[in-house]
Amino acid sequence: MKLIPRIESIMIKRREEGFTIEGEKVSQTSLARELGVRKQQVSLWSRGGALPRPDTLFHMASILNVRPDELYEFIPPTEEERLENIRNFEEKEKEDLLRRKQKKTEELEKLGLTEEQIHFQLRQLGLLKYDEERV
């Protein structure tokens, strides 16, 4: 998945059309001034090095008289990227669940609960998901 900035090409098109921002030719400087940010920030957005906040994106679109979705081209993830995202999510979810299970087990052991009571509590909390997969 990628977002390809179209900000610079829109500014060039607007300049060619004679469009101005508060009486100035469209430029990164005039756009930055109108948005209340530094020129370097607009440059960073134009190169794809960062993304503007949603409110800034909408403000920029309004200034340039385009729809917000015209400022960036969205390229959806490939099937391989999508599957990799899913694998990464599942791996992090499993790590998180196992970490939470370990912490809860330690808490319950300190309270003096039996192994059977601990198992019951962990099941109630949904922390045995990966234990049950192995069975």
Short characterization:
The chain has seven helices and four strands, in the order βαββαααβααα.
Q: How many H/I helices? A: 7
Distance between the termini: 37 Å
CATH class descriptor of the largest domain: Mainly Alpha
Instruction: Describe the main β-sheet briefly.
Output: 2 strands, antiparallel
Record the SSE blueprint.
Blueprint: E1 2-5, H1 7-16, E2 20-21, E3 24-25, H2 28-35, H3 39-47, H4 54-64, E4 72-75, H5 79-110, H6 115-124, H7 129-134
Antiparallel strand pairs: 1-4, 2-3
Describe the structure.
With 135 residues, this protein is mainly alpha-helical. It folds into two domains: 2-75, Orthogonal Bundle (434 Repressor (Amino-terminal Domain)); 79-134, no CATH class. The chain has seven helices and four strands; from the N terminus they run βαββαααβααα. The chain has helices at 7-16, 28-35, 39-47, 54-64, 79-110, 115-124, 129-134; strands spanning 2-5, 20-21, 24-25, 72-75. β2 and β3 (24-25) form a beta hairpin. The chain starts with a strand and ends with a helix. The model has no long low-confidence stretch (mean pLDDT 93). Residues 25-71 form the HTH cro/C1-type domain. InterPro entries: Cro/C1-type_HTH (IPR001387), Lambda_DNA-bd_dom_sf (IPR010982). It holds the Pfam family HTH_3. Keywords: Coiled coil.
